[in-house]
């Protein structure tokens, strides 16, 4: 055992296999220089998407811009894949060889419109904001893909590069429909990234989830003159909430259930004939999510019986937990360390210092310069539809420091940073790391073979992919306002 190997093992890191060699220095330097030169373009794209802030399945301008850029760069683009108008696949193929996929997300979150000011300053009249930084995600992935294509041509590298434009990650499970349609069946590896407040590669599990809407139907009546003639749909929603809250004691403690009431009537003196509740159930184990969701459905049915109403439900999303590739993580970690963290200007540091005053947890600002050692990371937390891909293709991703350290996702602070220059700098780190990692994998079929064997072992011999959202078509209207109801029918 060499001293280097001993140090890696002592740090909890397995050494890279001998066949996973880094890209030759001249090629690596050229690729990094190319992305650095195009960083202004990355920033402009990210800012355009930030300005539009289009929510799930409504990302028409964002998707069109990304497709146009990729076509101009020499990719063949197939729009509207898997029944999703804003989804697309961009491909560059040169001979036969591995197929490497890169993911791009571009949907915003409702209710988070915010300027780039370091203090809370909502944008009047705007309905959504990029509180998860998907504007950066998409822009960086596109720039990485363009850089890889140029490298493949310059060095006569054989294989196919695909960029997947994936809408509606935030609750719409867009990637699940791509998996179901078989669009990853021939892919050797998939690379992705996500904005965050630190740089690192993690292989911890995310949470599987099922989400859906429960719609109760009752009978309208005058709430004072003839309440006995009415049957309140809102009562059904509220009794369901009580039933689910009592259920929490009797489910696995790591399970998360959360909901909002999306429709509850129009006026207090009218017994509402329609009400709707939007639920999420999460756990790191998909089987537990299925079981708890079935019990939530039973609670809804019982609540309808108790209140003299009827109920139907629609599963709008469902994703697995992450099954990240340790083999690919080693390669990506090396490349992240090569790229290094961000360097902020004095003006950016001053901006970040001001924003940090609003954060409950304040971390050192200079931590954005660090890449950190690779850790498995904690299980749980949020959910992502990348997870479904990870159960079908070897998959790995990273986070980069696009936000002020200590910033939580889905916050106005994340929106502000995602539209700023520090967001673009963090995105450039991601673009460079993904590009180098893809290049390494194109030149290392042995690494891809090892990653596939690792995935097969982790899934087990009898694994068969079965989407948690079932066979439904994409819920293209899940972000649209709940329609008004009259007599059980939409107006």
Word description of this protein:
- Strands 1-2-6-3-7-12 form a six-stranded mixed β-sheet, with helices on both faces.
- It has 14 helices and 14 strands.
- The protein is 38% helix and 18% strand.
- Strand 13 and strand 14 form a beta hairpin.
- The radius of gyration is 24 Å and the shape is globular.
- The longest helix is centred in the middle third of the chain and has 22 residues.
- The chain has two domains: 321 residues, Zn peptidases (Aminopeptidase, 3-Layer(aba) Sandwich); 139 residues, Alpha-Beta Plaits (2-Layer Sandwich).
- The N terminus and C terminus are likely disordered.
- With 491 residues, the protein is of the alpha+beta class.
- Pfam families: M20_dimer, Peptidase_M20.
- Keywords: Hydrolase, Signal.
- It comes from Sphingomonas kyeonggiensis.
Quick summary:
The chain is of the alpha+beta class and 491 residues long.
Task: Please tag this protein with its features.
491 residues, alpha+beta, Aminopeptidase, 6-stranded mixed β-sheet, 4-stranded antiparallel β-sheet, 14 helices, disordered N terminus, disordered C terminus
Look at the structure and name the CATH superfamily of the largest domain. Zn peptidases
CATH architecture identity of the largest domain: 3-Layer(aba) Sandwich
Low-pLDDT segments: 1-14, 484-491
Structural class: alpha+beta
Strand content: 15-25%
- Helices and strands, in order, run as HHHHEEEEEHEHEEHEEHEHHHEHHHEE
Count of DSSP-assigned helices:
14
| Overall structural domain count | 2
* CATH class call of the largest domain: Alpha Beta
Total number of strands:
14
**CATH fold-type name of the largest domain:** Aminopeptidase
> Which whole number gives the mean pLDDT?
92
Distance between the termini: 73 Å
Give the oligomer, counting copies of the same chain as homo and different chains as hetero. Answer: single chain
What is the strand arrangement across the widest sheet? Answer: 1-2-6-3-7-12
What is the overall shape? globular
Largest sheet, described in full?
6 strands, mixed
Helicity level: 25-40%
Radius of gyration: 24 Å
